[in-house]
C-alpha cells in the first residue's frame, strides 16, 4: 500500500504574541500550522484579533514576538526583493475593499493579471467572467463610487481570486452582503478551494459558518484553537 503524500505546510505560527503600545494584549500565545488545501473559518468576538492575525500573515503587521512562516518564508527576515514574489501568491480581501476609484470595475479586477504579463484582452475576458459569477455583469464599465457597499465587496472578491492564488486571506468578505449573495460567493471560494487554493476566511456570519462543513480557527483570550463542526464529527463517526 502506497503511503499518502504529506501535505505541504503553507502557514506556520509559533508562539506568536502581539501587544500594542497602549498595553493591550491581542495575542499572548498563538501557535498553529495550516497546510495546502485547508479551508478554515476564522472566528471570534469583535476585538479578538481576526484582522490583526490576517495582517500578520501577509506581513502588513509584525508580531511583538514569535515566528511566522508563510510558503516557507520566515516573515521576520523577508527581504524587500522577496516581498513582491511572496505577495504574488496571496489573494487578499479587505473589509474596506480598497478599489482604485479611477478605474472601472472590470479594470480593477483585470489589473493584477495584466501587470503580471497577461494580455489586456485576455485579462479583461477573465475579469468579466468573474464579475458575471458575482452578479455584476451589467456593471462592467461602472466606477467604484457609483456602486453600493455590497457591490464593491463583490468586486473586491473577484479581484482577489482572479489570479487563482495559492492562499486566500479574506477579512469579512460577506460583511456587506445579504445571505443569497454571501452563499453565492461561498460557491466561488469552494470552487477555488477545489482547484487547490488554501482559504482562511474571517467572518462574523454564524449562518455562513454553520452552512458549510469546514473547521474553525477560534480566537479567544489571546490564543488560537481549532473546532470541528458537528457535520464533520458525524462523517467521522
Keywords for this entry:
alpha/beta, 8 helices, 10 strands, globular
Q: How is this structure best described in words?
A:
There is one protein chain. The chain is an alpha/beta fold. The chain has a domain at 99-164. The chain is 33% helix and 25% strand. It contains eight helices and ten strands. It has helices at 50-57, 83-88, 105-114, 120-133, 149-161, 179-194, 206-210, 230-236, and strands spanning 9-19, 25-35, 39-43, 65-70, 73-74, 90-93, 167-171, 198-202, 216-220, 223-227. Strands 6-7-8-3-9-10 form a six-stranded mixed sheet, with helices on both faces. Strands 2-1-4-5 form a four-stranded antiparallel sheet, with helices on one face. A hairpin with a 5-residue loop joins β1 (9-19) and β2 (25-35). α3 (105-114) packs across α4 (120-133) and α3 (105-114) runs parallel beside α5. It is globular. The two termini are 24 Å apart. The model is unreliable at 1-5 and 231-237 (pLDDT under 50).
Please, how many helices?
A: 8
- As a percent range, the share of strand residues is 15-25%
Shape: globular
Report the span from N to C terminus: 24 Å
Strand order of the largest sheet: 6-7-8-3-9-10
Mean residue pLDDT: 87
SS-derived structural category: alpha/beta
What is the β-strand count? 10
Chain oligomer state: single chain
Helix content: 25-40%
Can you write the helix and strand succession as a string? EEEHEEHEHHHEHEHEEH
Poorly predicted parts: 1-5, 231-237
Rg over alpha carbons:
18 Å
The biggest sheet, with number of strands, parallel, antiparallel or mixed sense and barrel status, is: 6 strands, mixed
